[in-house]
Amino acid sequence: MAAKLSVNLNAIAMLRNRRDLPWPSVVGLGEIALQAGASGLTVHPRPDERHIRFSDLAPIRALIDDLHPGAEFNMEGFPTEAFLELVERHQPEQVTLVPDDPAQATSDHGWDFRKSHNLLGNVVDRLKKKGFRVSLFADGDGDREALRIASDIGADRIELYTGPYGGCHDDPGRGAEILEALGRTAEIAAEFGLGVNAGHDLTVANLPALAARITNLDEVSIGHGLTADALEYGMAETVRRFRRACGQDV
Q1: Pick the catalytic residue: 31, 72, 76, 159?
Q2: Are the C-beta atoms of residues 139 and 161 closer than 8 Å to each other?
Q3: Cα–Cα distance for residue pair 210/86, rounded to 1 Å
Q4: Beta strand 94-97 with 4-8: parallel, antiparallel or unpaired?
Q5: Which pLDDT value is given to residue 108?
Q6: Which end of the chain is more exposed for a tag (fewer CB within 10 A), N or C?
Q7: Does residue 145 have an active-site annotation?
């Protein structure tokens, strides 16, 4: 089965936040994405609200519940108490935990599962008891012990950090090496019963090879490249292009 596409709305929110005005509409463009066949919407509400604002969360939840009940809401963030309270208030179908420092511009590495074992174990237990699917941001370096820890603490999935893969847009040879490492990591994850998501710097150009190599890819979450393409092709057509790149029939 082809990977599902979750549209990350943060870049749209960042553009809106340049002015004290309600456009571009985060919810409105999320609606267009879902109408075009996206399987869900992703947000990363950072403490300073520089992208998604906390006030965006309830309208996005309502959009999915009222108009697209088959879609999923994915909230990602560092597991502070404030973030966990947002999750519990807005009830996403999936929670993706990332090891970001609040000052980071964007996610740029996976968890160190050995050092963060206790933190993640407690948070995952809390979230699972409340019925959330939990995904943990992970490097695609084939670290078997790290993935064993992720499984042991109860995660449902990992999300492969694909930034290094996307960064090789001008170096196909290096890109192929990183793709193979991502594929091996996904295979190891499957051995431990973990589902596999992926995200960061994925594009229509590099996504087909990723989807072909990782046959157990459940979902991709894409924001920057998709939003950039939407400026050229429009949101609806861009979602269809990315769905085709995932291997979906459109």
Answers
A1: 76
A2: yes
A3: 32
A4: unpaired
A5: 74
A6: N
A7: no
